Amino acid sequence: MNMPNASGIRLSIIVAVYSETSSLVETVERMLRNDRGYIHEIIIVAFPRSSKECFDVCEGLIRKYDKVKLHIQQKTPGIGWAFREGMKMAGGTHVAIMSGDLETEPEAIDRMVRKIEETDCDVVIGNRWLKGGGFHNYDRLKLVLNWIFQLIFKTLFLTRIGDLTYGFKILKKDVIDSINWEGTQHEICIETTLKPMRRGYRIEQVPTVWIGRIEGESKNPLLRNFRYVGMAFRILFSGAKA
Length: 242
Fold this sequence. Notes:
By secondary structure, this protein is of the alpha/beta class. 43% of the residues are buried. Helix 7 (188-198) runs parallel beside helix 8 (226-238). The chain has 8 helices and 9 strands. The protein is 39% helix and 19% strand. A 7-stranded mixed beta sheet has the order 3-2-1-4-7-5-8, sandwiched between helices. It has a single domain, classed as Spore Coat Polysaccharide Biosynthesis Protein SpsA, Chain A. The longest helix is centred in the middle third of the chain and has 17 residues, at 140-156. The mean pLDDT is 92.
């Protein structure tokens, strides 16, 4: 059994799932294997029409690990609703959001926590563009568009922070509770970086690697990525009250 960590961080990890099975198990177990006492809970937020196999896996994880909980998404469709529901119910001092398909690297959670311990930042994001990060099995067109988007919006927001669209990060619970979240689909990924940034919260970043999923299908088609653009411009022109 892990002892509480000296920093006092109690991390709630929100894992959004659709119908993942083996990927979800590996995600949970790899995070717990690296836990230094900071994991308070792992909340699996499952889409209500997920497969029976997925729900069976979730129930198995709950029985095996005391820290794992299951929440059935109430508002649908959209991963934005899943993250918002998970963030609201989280009981830790900090909240991580990620997926259960192994596209978000489980080991990066520990690197993010170490960054918080070192800097006491309010938000830490995973950045695939930093040295030590990267993309594997990523659609080439999406990769080019991603790079262009990062360049444009880093300039517009006058920030050194990159990978603004990536929905893999840790936020202080106080930050989460201070902001009105609006995203219902994948635009929540950019909203959870840009809104804290506009509020003046301190943001740090760590390298992470994105690896294409090994099971299931992506629920984020290319055209839906334009929702990121709409969200970014709404935040850009709404000022610090975003």
